[in-house]
Design goal:
By secondary structure, the protein is α+β, with helices and mostly antiparallel strands. The protein folds into two domains: 2-54, no CATH class; 69-216, Beta-Lactamase, CATH 3.30.450. It has four helices and eight strands, in the order E-E-E-E-E-H-H-H-E-E-E-H. The strands form two sheets. A five-stranded antiparallel sheet has the order 5-4-8-7-6, covered by helices on one side. The N and C termini lie far apart (64 Å). This is PAS domain-containing protein.
């Protein structure tokens, strides 16, 4: 007897899993082969063999990645534990050279504040998501790659096994100075939220502009 179902399977190698997980699981289609004993009743199953096939990209538990995006898998301290080959190529590094490197090492000083606040919010936010403004990633040999980063936390049963996926949307190879002249308005926020000196996360990548925004918009 055979049966086909959809199920969520726990990833045994979450740090190296390139698929994007939801609640620590990956959606698969499982075909089950059931073997019964002579009684041939539901309670007489001797064993079950599952043949599992992962769903295509864009399935209910996955995020579709296109040519303008790439993913970096991080631990909770933002140390890189997996990086797509095209991400390394876009930044000018070999993929293996970035493993165990902190994401903070790829961020210029003026954008560190934005990453810190997104990181802090990610660790305490029940939605397990956080995003950054447009900021720069340092390229090998000089120059920057402008990206917008959306972080997704993948919780595991043991906190030390939890991981973070950084979905990077490519904006350009250099940060346009015109971007620094745009104030993104935000609604009022409570003092309990995590902001940088009164400016909301995502208001802008420039620390100088964050301070300016904090003066213009008061809680």
């Amino acid at each position: 007897m055979t049966a086909s179902i959809l199920m969520g399977m726990t990833c045994r190698l979450p740090k190296r899993a390139s698929g994007l997980l939801k609640f620590g699981k990956k959606a698969v289609e499982a075909t089950a082969f059931l073997r019964f004993n002579a009684n041939n009743s539901p309670t007489s199953i001797e064993h079950i063999i599952f043949y599992c096939t992962t769903l295509e990209s864009g399935g209910s538990m996955e995020i579709l990645i296109n040519e303008h995006k790439f993913a970096i898998r991080l631990d909770l301290a933002f140390k890189i534990i997996f990086i797509e080959l095209r991400a390394a190529e876009a930044l000018g590094y070999s993929g293996s050279s970035l493993i165990d490197t902190s994401l903070y090492e790829l961020i210029p000083n003026e954008d560190v504040g934005s990453i810190q606040q997104a990181h802090k919010k990610l660790l305490i936010d029940e939605t397990a998501q956080s995003s950054t403004p447009i900021l720069a990633l340092l390229k090998a040999g000089g120059g920057t790659l402008s990206v917008l980063i959306h972080f997704l936390r993948h919780d595991a049963k043991r906190r030390e096994h939890s991981t973070v996926t950084a979905i990077c949307s490519i904006v350009g190879n250099e940060i346009d100075s015109a971007l620094l002249s745009v104030i993104q308005t935000r609604p009022k926020w409570s003092s309990g939220d995590w902001w940088t000196d009164g400016a909301p996360v995502g208001s802008h990548s420039s620390l100088h502009y964050a301070h300016t925004l904090g003066k213009l918009i008061k809680p």
